[in-house]
Write a structure and sequence with these properties.
Number of strands of chain B: 17
Oligomer: heterodimer
Helix content of chain B: 40-55%
Radius of gyration of chain A: 16 Å
Order of helices and strands of chain A: EHEEHEEHHEHE
Strand content of chain A: 15-25%
Number of domains of chain B: 1
Number of domains of chain A: 1
Largest interface: A-B, 61 and 78 residues
Number of helices of chain A: 5
Largest sheet of chain B: 4 strands, antiparallel
Distance between the termini of chain A: 38 Å
Radius of gyration of chain B: 23 Å
Shape of chain A: globular
CATH class of chain B: Mainly Alpha
CATH superfamily of chain A: HybD-like
Structural class of chain A: alpha/beta
Structural class of chain B: alpha+beta
């Protein structure tokens, strides 16, 4: 079981919603991680997320967040921020998101105690591949927030020298 | 007359919106509307067809695997490319494991709470609950201690003043009818099911090397190197790990999921009479047994007007009956124009207007099969199999019908399965059927490797000029098809006709309503502010719509909007 799982949530086909997977690729290209740390592009799972959440000591999540703040703002949250509002009505299998999955695991007494979310406010979540300028500009700050949290948890990442080219395969043109 | 709108606002964009008009306590008119544009296919134009599956598996975070497999099948069909036997078996095992995971999650975590009242479970006697469970099933984890622990957990949640994951349920609703002990048992199994859905998903991870979004596919086969003596490849240790996991999940399905469905079903017999809707059924064959896809372990076909004797088979990859019968209409959908076209010929030009009851009101198109709306999903697959005398299907269906007859005293027949509750029952039965087939295909794979065949891949060759192809897959939510037009080795057009498009389709050019819409007519609604009965019928289809966005809402306090006017 990894001590820390760092995962990106979001859809690479929905412009800024692809932020999470994008940041994961930039992280992987720029840093080496201790063996106890798992780094993962998780896409947009429903309750399948429980497998990742259950099998980890601590979680660092990067995702777009709904907020009144300006696009490209980086906002961070901890476990209780996420759980303080009740979950939504269930309609489709997508409705169990991060909050719901954490609540279900809490019922089993299996939630990781450390949950840290690095959120970026999107400018656009329309169909299309590629981040908006505002959100792309926020990537270094999101990466830095993740790296700082890893250090705080005692699993510091070390920068690659030289950094590798991020493997953003979905942004390669047709 | 009351108009009720159920419009979830759980993510930035809308999902599925249901409108019903209720008169005299039952639904008289209904509309199903997809509130988000599904124009993802446009992103594929001009790309390398060998990469298409990497993109299509991002269509939907829940259905990643199914869109990946259907895409490689479509391109292989366009190229007339067969895939090695090992690749078919490995794909089949992934498909089955994914479907078992998905069905278990759907019943326990997404829809059981439509029928199970959490607050009533607090009044249950754990001893009586355990005794009841042991009368229903030999499952070894239904002890008094287990039921006590679940009840204590529920009590602590209620005492904390927050219902956690159980907030926003319709607790105490007059349509909730299970006795406290059945409710407590169901909550206990809700928790146990979390473990078993994970075990099923582990199988996908072992074979697909990652979930969500498997990595092991290729147009022409799979990339799972097979070497029984190598730790890094598919070897006997991994194969036995897979078999052990299938054994565990299948035991859960046989000893928990099916008994639970029968217990709930026999206590809500009236729901065998609601929700039939469109009685035309479409299923595609799946679990291929040969390299070309001419023989399958799950039969496909169509049934019209609920008459099982009308069954007409769909029998192979590239099947002409399937290929030539499908058109999509946009008469009531937010696209430019008013055409009905074959998927190869479609274009996707959005043209949003307001929600117009008699005009355009959905982003979902209306697929039709020889002009008729079709219901897809486990119920369709089970009925099509039953009608063709598919041995495993007949065995499981007859056993379940017999059990329901003896418990309810109602002469339950195949007609009753065409209902809201029947869709849930069919999903559970399908889960048992494919679980049996998982063990068969595991054996086929092991024997084939044992015979010395380690082939996993046939390299695709892309000729000049145009090729057309389609792939299908009987996904957890039903018949899924991808349609691709290639030109000089690139994608010129791509369309996905997904199960929820069939089921959630709006009216078509001739005014025929879609399966969700038809299934809601006649449904009772006891309380317009709490349309639990509407959710029961809609959930029974396992809707999976917009499929895309994952923006986290931390600051908001959002629930589905239910408006009763």
């Amino acid at each position: 079981m990894p001590a820390v799982t760092v995962f990106g949530l979001g859809n690479i086909l929905m412009s800024d919603d692809g932020l999470g997977p994008y940041v994961i690729k930039v992280l992987e290209a720029g840093y080496e991680f201790p063996p106890e740390v798992e780094v993962l592009d998780a896409g947009t799972p429903g309750l399948e997320l429980s497998t990742i959440l259950e099998d980890s000591g601590a979680l660092i999540i990067v995702d777009t967040v709904r907020s009144d703040s300006a696009p490209g703002q980086v906002k961070t949250y901890r476990r209780d921020d996420i759980l303080k509002h009740p979950p939504a009505q269930r309609i489709t299998p997508h409705d169990p998101g991060l909050k719901e999955t954490l609540l279900v695991l809490e019922l089993q007494g299996e939630t990781p105690p450390e949950v840290f979310v690095v959120g970026v406010v999107p400018a656009s979540v329309e169909y299309g591949v590629g981040l908006s300028d505002d959100v792309r500009a926020a990537v270094p700050a999101a990466v830095a927030a993740i790296v700082d949290e890893l250090a705080r948890l005692g699993y510091a990442a070390s920068p690659r020298d030289p950094p590798a080219e991020p493997e953003i395969w979905w942004e390669r043109g047709p | 007359m009351a108009r009720i709108t159920v419009d979830p606002v759980t993510r930035i964009e809308g999902h599925l919106r249901i409108d019903v008009e209720v008169t005299g306590g039952s639904v008289q008119k209904s509309w199903a509307s997809g509130q988000m544009w599904r124009g993802i296919e446009v992103i594929l134009q001009g790309r390398d067809p060998r990469d298409a599956w990497l993109f299509t598996q991002r269509f939907c975070g829940v259905c990643t695997t199914v869109h990946a497999i259907t895409s490689v099948r479509a391109v292989e069909n366009a190229l007339d490319l067969e895939v090695p036997l090992n690749a078919q078996y490995i794909r089949n095992l992934i498909l089955i494991a994914h479907a078992m995971h998905d069905h278990i999650v759907h019943f326990y975590h997404l829809s059981a709470l439509d029928w199970v009242d959490i607050t009533s479970a607090l009044r249950a006697d754990p001893v009586a609950t355990s005794r009841l469970a042991e009368s229903l099933s030999p499952w070894p984890y239904n002890s008094v201690q287990a039921m006590r622990a679940t009840k204590a957990k529920l009590e602590s949640i209620v005492a904390s003043g927050q219902l956690g994951i159980f907030a926003n349920g319709y607790w105490g609703h007059p349509a909730m009818k299970l006795p406290p002990e059945v409710n407590l048992l169901a909550v206990n199994h809700y928790l146990q099911a979390l473990e078993y859905q994970r075990k099923a998903n582990q199988i996908v991870t072992i074979l697909g090397s990652k979930t969500p979004n498997i990595q092991n596919l290729a147009v022409g086969g799979v990339v799972n190197a097979i070497n029984l003596d190598n730790q890094a490849t598919l070897n006997m240790t991994k194969l036995y790990q897979i078999k052990d996991l299938f054994d565990e999940v299948l035991a859960f399905v046989q000893q928990v999921y099916i008994p639970d469905i029968l217990a709930v079903g026999s206590l809500y017999p009236e729901w065998l009479g609601y929700g039939a809707g469109v009685k035309n059924y479409l299923a595609v064959p799946d679990l291929p047994l040969d390299t070309a896809g001419t023989q399958f372990d799950l039969p496909g076909g169509t049934i019209m007007n609920g008459d099982v004797s009308s069954v007409k088979p769909i029998s192979r990859f590239g099947d002409e009956y399937f290929r030539d019968s499908i058109e999509e209409s946009i008469a009531h959908s937010w696209y430019d124009g008013d055409w009905s076209r074959h998927p190869y010929e479609e274009e996707t030009v959005p043209n949003y207007t307001d929600f117009q009851d008699d005009g355009k009101y959905s982003w979902v198109k209306s697929p039709r099969f020889n002009g008729e709306p079709m219901q897809v999903g486990p119920l369709s697959q089970v009925l099509v199999g039953y009608a063709q005398g598919h041995e495993l299907t007949v065995k499981w269906v007859d056993a379940a019908l017999g059990e329901l007859r003896s418990r309810t005293g109602v002469n339950v027949g195949v007609g009753h399965v065409q209902s809201t509750l029947g869709r849930h029952a069919a999903r559970a039965l399908r889960c048992a059927i494919i679980g049996d087939l998982a063990l068969k295909h595991w054996g086929l794979l092991v024997n084939n490797i044992g015979s010395g065949d380690t082939d996993i891949f046939n390299a695709p060759v892309f000729p000049k000029g145009e090729q057309r192809g389609f792939g299908f897959h009987e996904a957890p939510r039903g018949a899924l098809s991808h349609w691709v037009v290639l030109e000089n080795g690139k994608i010129r057009n791509y369309q996905a006709v997904v199960p929820t498009t069939w089921n959630a389709s709006p009216r078509d050019a001739s005014g025929k309503i879609g399966p969700y819409e038809a299934s809601l007519l006649g449904n009772p609604v006891a309380d317009a502010e709490k349309p639990l009965e509407v959710l029961r019928t809609v959930h029974s289809f396992d809707p999976c719509l917009a499929c895309a966005i994952h923006t986290l809402d931390v600051e908001g306090n959002e629930i589905a909007k239910v408006r009763a006017l």
